[in-house]
Each structure stands twice: as C-alpha cells, then as structure tokens.
Amino acid sequence: MQHINPNWEQLLAKLHTKLEEVKQGGGESRIAKEHKKGKLTARERIAYLIDKNSDFLEVGAFAADGMYEEEGGCPSAGVVAGIGHVSGRMCVVVANDATVKAGAWFPMTAKKSLRAQEIAMENHLPIIYLVDSAGVFLPMQDEIFPDREHFGRQFRNNSKMSAMGIVQVAAIMGSCVAGGAYLPIMSDEALIVDKTGSIFLAGSYLVKAAIGESVDNETLGGATTHCEISGVTDNKYDSDQDCLDAIRRIFATLGENAKAGFDRIAAKEPGVSADKLLEVFPLERVKPYDMLEVIAGLVDGGELDEYKKDYGKTLICGTARIEGWAVGIVANQRKVVKTAKGEMQMGGVIYSDSADKAARFIMNCNQRKIPLLFLQDVSGFMVGSKAEHGGIIKDGAKMVNTMANSVVPKFTIILGNSYGAGNYAMCGKAYDPRLIFSWPSAQMAVMSGASAAKTLLQIKVASLKKTGKEISEQEEKELFEEITNKYEEQLSPYYAAARLWVDGVIDPRETRRAISMGIEAANHAPITERFNVGVIQT
C-alpha cells in the first residue's frame, strides 16, 4: 500500500490478521478432521454455494472475539453468516462451524443467528441454513435457553418468516440435535447429506438412558431413516457438494418478489481513490478534518448535493449516489466551523441548528423514499448553559424522533468517535440500522476514554475518602492508568464487534461495497409503513 499513513497500515494489518485467524475456525487439525469425514467446512460450503465471482458480505465475523476464553474460545461464535447471491438471488446464508466445539451454541451463537434471521426478515430475503451443530453448549445453558432473545427465538422466527412468505431452505450436513432439530424442519425445504447428516430430538446415549432402547444414531435419525421412513426430510444427497447443488437448483426457480423501488443508475468511481480516502481521514482523534473529503471517497464521482449547506454546519446533510444507488447522507463535520452569527462551533459536536437541520433532512428523505446513511464521528451534543438555554435537548429530541421513526432503510458506518447520545442520534445499534459497520479507527462508549477515566477516578477517590483512606499522588496516578487501560479496551471496535453492537469491522475501502449490498438487500422489502413522527418538539 503506497502513500498510506503507517498508522493506517498497522491498523489494517491487524484487521486482516484477525480476519485470517477467525477464518481458521477451530484450527487446522479440526478442519482436517472434517475433511476426513468427507465434509466441507462452513466457509468452504458458503464459497461453493454462492455464485462465482460474487461478493459475500459477512456479518459478525468477530462475534465472540476474546470471549469464552476459559472454554477455549469460540471464533465467529461458531457460526458463519452473511449476505450473498445464489443462482442470481440475493439471500442470507447461515452455516454452523463444526470445527468450533462441534458447532455447539454459545450465548453469542444465539445472538448472531438471530441477527442473521433479523436481516432476512427486515429485507424480505430468502435464507439458507447449513446445519451442523451439536446443540446448546450445556455448561452455559442458562445463558442460551430460556429468555426472549435466546435459542428458542430462532424457531419463533422460522414460523414468522414462513407466514411472511420468506423462503427458508435448510441442509442437514452434520449433527442436528434436540431443540435444534426444529430449525431445518420448520423451513420450507429440508435436505440431508447421507451418512454425515443426522437429526433427532435425542441421540442414542440419551435414548438408552431415558427409555432403555439400544439404537445407533444412523438408524435413529440418519438420512435413510428420515427420507424413507419418517418423511421428516425431503431428499438425501451423497455429498456436501451434491446437496449444495440442489439448493442452487431450488434458488434458480424462485419467483421475483415486489421491490421497494429505490433509485439506481449506472455507478461511477468515487471522487477520491480508495487509498487517498485513508490519507484524508486522520487517526489522531483531536485533529480536525473536513468530512466532505471523506464523503468524496465514498460517493460516486465525489458528488454530494448538500442540504442547507450554510446552516447547522457541524452536520453535513445531502444526497449522493453509492455504486449507483441514491442515498441521503447525514455525517458529522469534524472541522471547526463558524456560523453566520460569528459563533465558533466545534467539529464532531451536534448543536441545536445542526440537529434541527438533520431532522428536516431525514423527513425529506422519507418523503422522497431515499435510504439514509449515517457517517459517525461524533463526540455528542453541545453542553453548557448557552446550549441548554437554546433548547439543545428539544432539538436533539426532534432529530432522534425523526431518525427513530424513519421508514426508509438506515445504514450506519462508525468512522471515528461514537460517544454518548451522539451514537443514538446518528443511528446507533439501538435504532435498527439495516447494517452497521465500524472502521478499525472507531471507538464507541458513553464518553471518550480520557473523560471517562477522569470521572471514574474522581468517583473512586471520593469513595475511598468516605472510608477514611487517603491515597498518595503516585497511587492516584496508578489507579488512573488502571482505569484508563480497562476503559480503552472497551472502546475498541473489536470489543463492540465481539458483542454484535456492530455487524463487523471493515477496511474503509470496503465501505462502498457494504453500503451498496445493504441497499440492494433493502430493496427487496417494499415500504408498507407510513412515516409518522407522532408528537414532535418544535
């Protein structure tokens, strides 16, 4: 990579190294074990299934990153998921990774699988399940089994998607045990691979313990049993490849659904090259920069038709195109700006005038049926007596209201800071963006690391003083460093991605592709809800 900030090179090297590690799943020995059984791995299955030379937009690659270390870790939460094309039809694919704890479900496995189903439901995309799982990871069953967003929710979603007319195709390509057996059988079509696929509510050991019957797993729930005796599965196939070919044939026959009708024309190259994009975005958090230069590297031809260009200048609003798709952009301006009244406003901060402008722009995009893209590098809303007297809470509430009630699809990219209520107003995870990704340069928290550490230190020192303990200047310094280090770890984009607060961490040069695929997916779901903001602060 030439002419790229060495710090960017370091961040991107870390990203790509982590991705390669994740793609190894349970490791080379586990992959070899699957191959010895005649099976493909989850990622090999997806690569074989999707159309050649087409993109696969992975979701949740870093799910569970750094979590469950006492259990040996759970790369990608033991499941691979994303959006791709099969026989020309865009769809969601979910594949259990049997190289990771035999595909057992951890708490984050459930969260990620539900996220994949949510993407299918929101965008009316057909979904393919490639099932190969030992079921719930029993030592953590209390964190996976009983709650609203736990394991059982997937079967509820199976039922809801069926009622919505969303096509679901499942392939049983390994173990499919207990409650997990319902997922493929609640799908429209259930395929099974002979000799390696099996499905039953209880395996042979449990059957023996429960009712005293001695039976092997193949007789109990193998492909021949379920295709010829029980009728539970539809057809059996000799290999993973044969089964995946059958799915491709099914998808080749799918009829066209109604579309949302978002506007698209022939794409243009962005106004700034991909590598130049990295140059114009500084990694120094306090350094001002012009967000318009970043936008030029994301949109077709670098062309942005700005809305209220000379008003509320700490937020940039305007329409543009990304890979031909019309899109409305709301972005934080990070350079210091001067208002017509002579007031200097800090970059990355939302003021009353910018919140007011953004609210109106969001309404216009809903009126014009244009998807919304939020580019976050936000420190929060302006504070202080002047801002409070000027009604910052009222104007901020108006922006949050219009954004939350938008019926056009929303997409969010976190470039740099994502702090406090700024995260909310700029369409954070809580506000249902269809997709939300971070750059490796992103940080997400209730406030910046420096501010939080100082605040937490004051609380800690005050608490110690209440108990009669005075601490020395050196002890206070050590305590500050300890608090800072812990907080900095939580600011990491990988910390957020591990918990699925974002759908992934992406190379900035992949941003256009991610947004374009997101809008293409959203275009499969006609907008049926009327835009209504209810009672709004004026």
Automatic annotation (TrEMBL):
Transmembrane segments: 163-185
Annotated InterPro entries: AcCoA_carboxyl_beta, ClpP/crotonase-like_dom_sf, COA_CT_C, COA_CT_N, MCCB/AccD1-like
Key word Transmembrane helix present: yes
Alphabetical list of Pfam families matching this protein: Carboxyl_trans
Domain (CoA carboxyltransferase C-terminal) ranges: 273-529
Signal peptide: none
Limits of the CoA carboxyltransferase N-terminal domain: 8-266
Keywords in alphabetical order: Membrane, Transmembrane, Transmembrane helix
PANTHER family (UniProt xref): ACETYL, PROPIONYL, PYRUVATE, AND GLUTACONYL CARBOXYLASE-RELATED, METHYLCROTONOYL-COA CARBOXYLASE BETA CHAIN, MITOCHONDRIAL
The protein's name in its UniProt record: Acyl-CoA carboxylase subunit beta
Record organism: Algoriphagus oliviformis
